[in-house]
Amino acid sequence: MTHQSQVPPDLKDDLLRAVDNSPADWILLNLALSTMKMGGHRYGAFLDAATTAAKLAIYSTFVEQGNNIRKTGFLYHVEPKRVKAIVQEIQVALAAGQSLKVLNSKEPYYLIALPFLWQEQFPCDPGAARVRLQGLTPGERKTIEESLPSSAPRARILDQVEFTELMELLHQMSQEELPSSQRMPFSDALLSHIKFRLLHSGTVIQIDSPLVDIPLYALASGSYSPKGEQERVFAMIDDVARFFSLLQAWVREDEGVLRGVEVFDVAPQDRKAALEELDEMLRAWADKYHQDGGLPMVLQFAAGRREYD
């Protein structure tokens, strides 16, 4: 159970003053608000995660400084014996292959690929039947198909077995990008979690028809987007983490990384149309340059009202 996360404007101003309007402090405050108030993580778990992050920062500096304990301690105002203890703790964990993660959003970000994979694996040409179950009359198939929203993509309606196989294929594809130590097997619990996300978001709808004795599943949307605050917060946390990583690559001047910021004013009545046009442009741009087997890229952005110049 999570709490209401919307911070009242007056309280938000008070919090800003409390951290002296420091961007770094504001990032930490927003992190706490996101993970504790919106994500539902315990206070103790958040502190454990922050402590782990600080230890990892010290260990990375220790390595960068040529394993010099005293210099590392000087940079962070930490006693050398404490630095030594932290280094040993991290080295033991790394040697044992232990995971140092304390918090986990558990939002399967790869669900965004589902609509594309569904349409690729189970296409349905115009005029062809979406339901391929045996024993149904053309009229019964038409009745089931007419239960879909008019905006549903052209794709086959799946039975339980086909739907499960599609989820397993999606999971396997996502695992291929991870190191072997971080891969997790497909399970009934994971299937239930993915199914819940897809149904709750409206990306997939379950059809319980009296004409068939098993549930059917239909692709209802061409894109995956969590609904509601509690559902979106997990995606937000993943997005922020990925954005930090991208900006760090930009700071290092890594090749193939672009930081973009546009500040402008827009007529209130044009804002919705402007955002819709931007969404269409970005999708067309990605489709234009996508190539199977090419270099993996991500474009991540947020557009909205600016609060501070």
Would you write up a description of this structure?
This protein is mostly helical. The protein has helices at residues 9-18, 23-38, 43-64, 69-76, 80-95, 114-121, 138-145, 160-175, 188-201, 228-251, 271-289; strands at 158-159, 204-207, 216-219. The chain is globular. Helix 2 runs antiparallel to helix 10, helix 3 (43-64) packs across helix 5 and helix 4 packs across helix 5 (80-95). Helix content is 52%, strand content 3%. A hairpin with an 8-residue loop joins strand 2 and strand 3 (216-219). The chain has eleven helices and three strands. It has a three-stranded antiparallel sheet with strand order 1-3-2. The chain starts with 8 loop residues before the first helix and ends in a 20-residue tail after the last helix.
The number of E-state strands comes to 3
Low-confidence stretches: 1-5, 102-107
Q: What series of H and E elements makes up the topology?
A: HHHHHHHEHHEEHH
Coarse shape: globular
Summarize the topology:
Layout: H1 9-18, H2 23-38, H3 43-64, H4 69-76, H5 80-95, H6 114-121, H7 138-145, E1 158-159, H8 160-175, H9 188-201, E2 204-207, E3 216-219, H10 228-251, H11 271-289
Antiparallel strand pairs: 1-3, 2-3
Helix pairs in contact: 2-10, 3-5, 4-5
